[in-house]
């Protein structure tokens, strides 16, 4: 086995890259980076009826969005079928596997007989030691591995510990179907061996597969890789993860306005931790990650925690970088394309100028995009219900007063407009909020926004005065 750590991510292209698959990919990627190793990608597309090019594209796109690159070309398992058959036939020649010729009806009768006698429905080894000359004429048999009949198979797992499987429970499973198509169980072993994989990090739903796959490794005399079976992800309520919990494709998280860095950070913390560290950079995760620190217990996926973490990552980003990330993501956000069409270069510059105040109030890029309304909108502004409710006759009188204070200003900035509003409040014997609230509604069309003086500075003198005048008229 290679001295260099080689991990692999091996998704089936029968659907999107879901959140559990994304975490598996991340753990393989982090461990490869942590050890200066390599991560390979294999598309397990042997199920021809359910595998699609669209699903493969969605998986590759999801990995690219998360920033998880792989070494070398992506491998198609289906294209390696000839190699899988070659190994199966070699096992037959070595006496480690054999052809079995039961019909589907005979196999069902065998299972029924076992059940009737209170036994698990295993293959009974009928063809295990028979002479090949007894094979029925014109019938193509399936190849079955000769599993050990006694003792137990030990799986040493870096997450789950040592697990012992009684060999009587493994039975002589099929490695090559009668139509010459290799089974998943067999193809995986051949591929992992040929690709030089040293560490298999995957979901614990594959734990029993590890025992069966060990049988093939041992029969071929190949080194068994290091196993690390990670626990499943549950919903926040402890139930199996479903769409209502967040079991969408990873592309849905982009549409919901999450940053790749925040999703990576959150996924890394599902069943793995480094002390009390919650917020991590990519370099920190790579430096700290080790499979020995993965928990055995199932993790719980909590949207509220992901959203809070996303807000932390947004606030920690450089304003220009966050602005660029927002513009790049707009095509994927609800109504994002329409918003992008409203933002010319001048308005994009205003977005950057407003970003310090905007990002303080947003936890997702969707919320951030929504807060751009006051920059993107054209006059006269469409007021939302709350803003319209604020602008009654008294409020319009306040706007008239503040407008005259603004018109008298020689210099336009957050500081000078704040001084003017305070002077207006004092002159009209009102609290500052009673002036600021209708002013915010007139300027932004909303009842909430970044600081009203920042809004005035971003919009500039002419646009601000025009919007106030629109509401007075």
UniProtKB/TrEMBL annotation:
Reaction(s) the record says it catalyses: tRNA(Glu) + L-glutamate + ATP = L-glutamyl-tRNA(Glu) + AMP + diphosphate
Entry GO terms, CC: cytosol
Function, in words: Catalyzes the attachment of glutamate to tRNA(Glu) in a two-step reaction: glutamate is first activated by ATP to form Glu-AMP and then transferred to the acceptor end of tRNA(Glu).
Gene name of the record: gltX
Record has Flavoprotein as a keyword: no
Motif 'KMSKS' region, residue numbers: 240-244
Name this protein carries in UniProt: Glutamate--tRNA ligase
Residues that, per the record, bind ATP: 243
Residues annotated as domain Glutamyl/glutaminyl-tRNA synthetase class Ib catalytic: 4-307
